[in-house]
Design goal:
By secondary structure, this protein is an alpha/beta fold. It has two domains: about 200 residues, Spore Coat Polysaccharide Biosynthesis Protein SpsA, Chain A (Alpha-Beta Complex), CATH 3.90.550; about 70 residues, no CATH class. It is built from eleven helices and nine strands. It has a five-stranded mixed sheet with strand order 3-2-1-4-8, with helices on both faces. Strand 2, helix 2 and strand 3 form a beta-alpha-beta unit. Helix 8 runs antiparallel to helix 10 and helix 10 runs antiparallel to helix 11. The longest helix is centred in the last third of the chain and has 22 residues. The termini are far apart.
Length: about 290
């Protein structure tokens, strides 16, 4: 495992964290319990002020990397620090509030046997937590998300950070996570990756992702900041987006309204819920039934 000194691991698992020990422990355990054991567990502590350092710094199973307050520049910078420390041929990411199922890495590596330069992801289990309780929802990608998705990726997001497994060599070609982003960082990265590599996925939910509703303070639920990041991504890849057809552009805007609706729902913003609900009706629901755009 991570205590190996003389042998390079095949896979590097990168967990980024900031002041969330209540989640981090389970994330780490899910890496250490993988059925595939030739991996290292890298924990990048992004300037935590809690007990994270004292608990994990001297754990022999973990490569502990600490970012100081002065060096802290957000979650994507922390992921990039993790990539720089990674020794594995393949790099997989895990947010500290998500967990991997035991066979996640093993099953993804099986797909790399067919194409070592592909990007591999998997399905998810959404753990929906609200004041009313907790529920679980499985999500498996449709088959169209497999193969050459260089145009499709411009219309819709395909996965989340904790599901991705990427050959380290591809980062040398497309660059690292964009540190200007706090939302859709994996989406922007996959846009670049899809221009040079095929995508494949394990058709099983192998990652449990936390989905909190009714919490406007949660970063992922801040709709206004998310919209700024969406505009930034559109401008950054404007050449690619200009090549989209009318139908592809429609699908793209339907994707935006759907995600904005979900974020508004999770943060409890009633006016936004109504606005994006109406928008989804005209951009997604009606076209899918009457015009067969999707």
């Amino acid at each position: 495992m991570t205590g190996m000194k003389n042998k390079m691991p095949l896979v590097s698992a990168v967990i980024t964290t900031h002041n969330r020990p209540q989640y981090l422990e389970n994330a780490i355990k899910s890496v250490l319990r993988q059925t595939f054991q030739d991996l290292e567990c890298i924990v990048v502590d992004d300037a935590s002020s809690d007990s994270t350092e004292s608990i994990y710094k001297n754990d022999p199973r973990i490569v502990y990397v600490q970012i100081s307050n002065e060096e802290s520049r957000g979650g994507n910078h922390a992921r990039n620090v993790g990539i720089e420390h990674a020794k594995g041929e393949y790099i997989a990411f895990l947010d500290d509030d998500d967990v991997w199922l035991p066979q996640k890495i093993e099953k993804q590596l099986q797909l790399f046997q067919k194409n070592s330069k592909a990007v591999v992801f998997c399905g998810r289990i959404f753990k929906k937590v609200s004041p009313e309780g907790c529920s679980f929802q499985n999500s498996v990608p449709p088959q169209k998300f497999s193969g050459n998705i260089s145009r499709l990726i411009l219309c819709t997001y395909v996965t989340s950070t904790s599901c991705l497994m990427i050959p380290r060599s591809l980062f040398a070609e497309v660059g690292l996570f964009d540190e200007n982003l706090i939302f859709w960082q994996e989406y922007e990265l996959t846009i670049r990756l899809a221009q040079i590599a095929d995508f494949y996925f394990v058709p099983e939910p192998l990652v449990e992702c936390l989905d909190e509703t009714g919490n406007p303070q949660r970063i992922s639920n801040k709709v206004a900041s998310w919209k700024k990041n969406v505009t930034y991504i559109r401008m950054k890849h404007s050449v690619l987006y200009k090549s989209l057809s009318f139908k592809e552009n429609w699908i793209y805007h339907a994707t935006l309204s759907k995600d904005a609706f979900r974020r508004s729902l999770r943060s409890g913003l009633k006016k936004n819920i109504f606005f994006y609900g109406i928008l989804r009706l005209f951009l997604e629901y009606i076209p899918s039934r009457l015009l067969h755009l999707f």
